[in-house]
């Protein structure tokens, strides 16, 4: 049914973050609910958000983020289109070992998270990673075993949030960082810690 071209056309295309070994699906960081509030607070992890500057604010990138958000909103509002979206995304993701949700942006609602979970269930051979600050949306949904949801601590040097199986933090001391991407020119390299269900917390060095 699908080709790569037709599936990409339906979902609005995937993003290709240079740091990671896989594609992603991103929307504008300016639409983040919790993140937009944290962006106004000094020493929050969102106060210098990488997805609110640099190449992310180029006109062509913003157009792509807006296009994906438009498609996502339609999938959340239209049951028939939702099924097509799940099918097309599953086609693009299947047979790939890793996938990250939201290298830019975050969950908009419980329905949004349920949609991502349905895609994860449809691609059982792919490990999905979702970093989020929207814990209120994820606690009400059964998470597929091939999806690692990491709740992010809101402030730099803040302890990991409690009550979640997987978390992430941001630290100001390189020695405290378990993610060593800064030693590899900002790239994951061979590391797959973020997707690893045995790793409870990933500590990133601040951008």
Distance between the first and last residues' Cα: 42 Å
Kindly name the structural category: alpha/beta
Largest sheet, in brief, is:
6 strands, parallel
Strand content: 5-15%
Report the helical percentage.
25-40%
General shape:
globular
Q: Based on DSSP secondary structure assignment, what is the total number of beta strands?
A: 6
- Sheet with most strands: strand arrangement: 1-2-3-4-5-6
Mind telling me the C-alpha Rg?
16 Å
Structural account:
- The chain has 207 residues and is of the alpha/beta class.
- It is built from six helices and six strands.
- The chain has a six-stranded parallel beta sheet with strand order 1-2-3-4-5-6.
- Helix 5 links the parallel strand 2 and strand 3.
- Helix 1 (4-11) crosses helix 4, helix 3 crosses helix 4 and helix 4 (79-93) crosses helix 5 (110-122).
- The N and C termini lie far apart (42 Å).
- The relative contact order is 0.15.
Summarize this, please?
Helix content is 31%, strand content 14%.
Helix/strand layout:
Elements: H1 4-11, E1 24-25, H2 33-38, H3 59-77, H4 79-93, E2 98-101, H5 110-122, E3 127-132, H6 135-138, E4 147-152, E5 167-171, E6 201-205
Parallel strand pairs: 1-2, 2-3, 3-4, 4-5, 5-6
């Amino acid at each position: 049914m699908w080709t790569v071209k037709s599936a990409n056309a339906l979902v609005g295309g995937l993003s290709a973050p240079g740091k990671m070994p896989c594609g992603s699906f991103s929307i504008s960081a300016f639409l983040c609910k919790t993140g937009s509030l944290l962006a106004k607070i000094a020493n929050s992890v969102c106060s210098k958000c990488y997805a609110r500057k640099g190449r992310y604010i180029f006109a062509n990138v913003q157009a792509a983020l807006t296009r994906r958000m438009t498609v996502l909103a339609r999938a959340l509002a239209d049951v028939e289109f939702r099924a097509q979206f799940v099918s097309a995304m599953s086609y693009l993701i299947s047979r790939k070992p890793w996938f990250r949700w939201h290298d830019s942006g975050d969950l908009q609602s419980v329905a949004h998270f349920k949609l991502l979970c349905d895609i994860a269930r449809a691609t059982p051979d792919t490990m999905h990673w979702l970093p989020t600050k929207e814990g209120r949306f994820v606690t009400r949904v059964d998470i597929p075993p091939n999806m690692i949801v990491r709740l992010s601590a809101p402030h730099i040097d803040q302890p990991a949030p409690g009550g979640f199986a997987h978390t992430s933090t941001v630290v100001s001391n390189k020695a405290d960082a378990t993610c060593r991407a800064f030693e590899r020119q900002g790239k994951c390299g061979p590391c797959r810690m973020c997707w690893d269900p045995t790793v409870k917390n990933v500590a990133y060095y601040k951008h």
